[in-house]
Amino acid sequence: MVDDWRLFGALRLCTGIGIGGFGIVCYVYTSESIGVSWQAIQGVGQAGIFSMANALLAVLAMYIPGWRALTVVTGLTPLFWVSLWWITPESPRWLQQQGRLEEANSIMKEIERVNHAPPKEASSLPAGAVLAPPCTDEGQGTDSPGDLFEFPMLTRVVIMLYVWFANSFVYYGLSLNSGNLGGSLYFNFALGSIIEMLSFPIGIYLTDKKGRRPTMVGCMVLSGIGCTACLFLPTGFLTTCAAMLGKFGIAASFAIIFVYASELFPTTLRSLAMGMSSTSARVGGVLAPQVVLLVSISEALPLLVFGIVAFTAGLSMLPLPETLGKPLPDTISDCLEEPGTNVELDTIST
Length: 350
Hints:
Elements: H1 2-32, H2 39-63, H3 67-76, H4 79-82, H5 92-97, H6 101-115, H7 153-176, H8 185-209, H9 212-229, H10 237-264, H11 270-292, H12 301-316, H13 332-336, H14 346-349
């Protein structure tokens, strides 16, 4: 029996590492393969698919007998995506930064052919070229992982680590706390997933109209207020409504943070920065169930903790810059100065 649990734990560890890494790489890849005008739609859209799967999970859990069978069914689904390896091209932006221009231009030409949209700046580039070589001026093209831990990039890293932690901590905490709201666990969980999906269209609109930072701050503060309000409301319908308001805000925030974080860090270090942020988020996910257990002291205590964390994380983003409408940065210099002259993917993907 002990050996069985050890094997189970090892397999679950592999699943967590694989899915966690796959999710981040998938987002980074898509953000580097489209133009600025589509960042919010594709980023929040991916979160929408996640919420749809959560709603489906509630249904599967009701009808699949036993957690082992449910684990097998959900654990095998990622194998489908392995087949996409053979038809998915590399990120042209990453290839450009690696100096592999021939491969990058080949992919860009295919995008041009499918979209029937020739690059607007093609005439300013060498014959047949779409992407210009990466800038090699002093201070550019030489970014190293250590640069993320020097000011002013360090400020972005620290804030993002806390904000990602808070988003995962509150999001999964509210999901796991569904059973403490009264009524059916399956219904509450599915209702929370539906509330998430309702938040995404609003998130997309505000992200593109008002900006990434103010929308993120507003959503996290709203979540904090909703969760904290449960401390002052009678248990029952009103508490459930307040908790769902908190879920509404944190779900929108958790979707937008992928868009915002990818625009705060350069192509040269984007995967590393997003990986660090995701690791911080996983820590939040690990701690969330422990906070849910505080319900044994007070039913509102877990929600109070989640509310405080969401509120403070939202305010912590105020020093960060706005990225709405700015080209995706390729180097740290692009993050801190005027954007470079590389052709943006919007020129052929709109």
